Amino acid sequence: MRQAFIVTYDVRDPKRLRRVYRVLRGYGRHLQLSVFQCELDARERVELMAKLRKAVHHDEDQVLFVDIGPADGRGATSIESIGVAYVPEERRAIIV
C-alpha cells in the first residue's frame, strides 16, 4: 500500500540543499520551497530515507516526514490551500 507523505527540509548548506532537492525530486512532487509530497511504498520510503541520510549533515540539517495517510484515501484529500489553489497531481496508470 502506498502512503502519502509531506516531506519538508531545512538544510543550511547550499550544496547539500541542492542535493536534497534532487533526491526528493525523484520521489515526489515539489509543492513549495523545501516541501514535497511523496507517495511511497515501504521499500521506497526506506530507500528515500537512506539517500537523504547520506545527503544531510546530521548536526545541522533536518528532514521531516509527515504521514498523511493512504495515497488513495485521506492522503489524496488532506491538503488545503490559502491563496493559489492546490491542484492534486493526476494519477495515471502506466502499462508496461
Q: Outline of this structure?
A:
The chain has 96 residues and is an alpha+beta fold. The protein is 31% helix and 29% strand.
Structural class label: alpha+beta
On the 0 to 100 scale, the average pLDDT is: 90
Secondary structure tally, helices: 3
Instruction: Report on the biggest sheet.
Output: 4 strands, antiparallel
Total beta-strand segments: 4
What's the Cα radius of gyration? 14 Å
- H-E string: EHEEHEH
Tell me the strand order in the biggest sheet.
2-3-1-4
* Helix content percent band: 25-40%
The backbone outline, from C-alpha atoms, is globular
Poorly predicted regions are: none
Relative strand content: 25-35%
- Give the termini separation: 20 Å
Kindly describe this structure.
By secondary structure, this protein is an alpha+beta fold. It is built from three helices and four strands. Strand 2 and strand 3 form a beta hairpin. The two termini are 20 Å apart. It holds the Pfam family CRISPR_Cas2.
Write the SSE topology.
Blueprint: E1 3-10, H1 14-25, E2 28-32, E3 35-40, H2 42-55, E4 62-70, H3 74-77
Antiparallel strand pairs: 1-3, 1-4, 2-3
Helix pairs in contact: 1-2
